[in-house]
Amino acid sequence: MSTLLQVxxxxxxxxxxxxxxxxxxxxxFSLGRERLGIVGESGSGKxxxxxxxxxxxxxxxxxxxxxxxxxxxxxxxxxxxxRRTLRGSRIAMVLQDPKxxxxxxxxxxxxxxxxxxxxxxxxxxxxxxxxxxxxEAVQIRDPERVFNLYPHEVSGGMGQRAMIAMMLIAGxxxxxxxxxxxxxxxxxxxxxxxxxxxxxxxxxxxLIFISHDLRLVSSFCDRVIVMxxxxxxxxxxxxxxxxxxxxxTRGLLDCMPKIGADRHPLPTLQRQAEWxx
Length: 277
Known about the structure:
Elements: E1 5-16, E2 19-31, E3 35-39, H1 46-54, E4 62-64, E5 67-70, E6 73-74, H2 80-89, E7 91-94, H3 98-101, H4 108-119, H5 124-137, H6 143-147, H7 156-168, E8 174-178, H8 186-203, E9 206-211, H9 214-220, E10 223-228, E11 231-237, H10 247-254
Helix pairs in contact: 4-5, 4-7, 5-7, 7-8
Subcellular location: Cell inner membrane
Main location: membrane
Keywords: ATP-binding, Cell membrane, Membrane, Nucleotide-binding, Transport
């Protein structure tokens, strides 16, 4: 399997009045055309890792790495113009909640069309046609109607599907999904995951799936990276997650309720200082 993304010793620092906060501390992994899950609690550095790959960290942040390559392109040393060209066309990111990601004063269809025409020289009619096809591909039943709706007029699940359509319209090779189902109910979650699964398989994309839900990641991804305090503490095949060895991963697994098991009181995570070192 060819390597699509190579991350080596990635660090993300935020200078503050009281000192520097290191949100990501020496993260290293590679990604082929597969589904890689990144899990961990809030503040573990999952989202900042994804944003650093996309080039979406705030201007005051300090992003360094021995290597941050996408398909042979050095992401740390490309020009701002090249970054903008890559972002959306070859690398895309689905954010957590469509309410905060979609422009409230533009219709859903217009936003998808704008995304496509930013990256490809196509006519407005062709862009509209492809946007409707993409809305249909993410299982929106009446794409013509949804095309003309504004974000506040669609449900959370439909808004997330529209976000996925927008991110995939230009045919990226790498998709970063940052907790794309956390704001959705369980049945819609499964539908959105099914859409992502099919699109990744059909298009041969690489997928980084960021989540705090171990059960979801273990059933959806090929490999899993577990992060704590900005570091990777364990990397394991998703199918083997139940046999994880690191005490943090074991603690996360033990904290999950199990139907039919007598777990009173529910186990809690016993943190160890050496995990943060």
